[in-house]
Input
Amino acid sequence: MKGVSKRVIEINATENEYFDRAVLYLRTGENTQEGKLMEEASSYLRGLESAPAVTAVKTRIRTQWMLSLAKLLSAAATGAALAVFFLKF
Output
């Protein structure tokens, strides 16, 4: 944006396993102390981690992983059963 100045907070230590940093743009006219802004930014990011969208993604990943594991175990059991069947005859 040419000719527009924005105040930005960049968080480099998000303490999140997926994101290295976050960039937050301050609203125009906010004249809060820097320490208070950093505290609010950290609080906001912690709140995002427990948001329903993040929880849904974690649940979907866990579900997909469990389904893959069930398929693998099922295939292994089927293979073992067939091996026993053919070795008997």
Observations:
- The mean pLDDT is 78.
- The longest helix spans residues 52-88.
- Residues 8-88 form one domain.
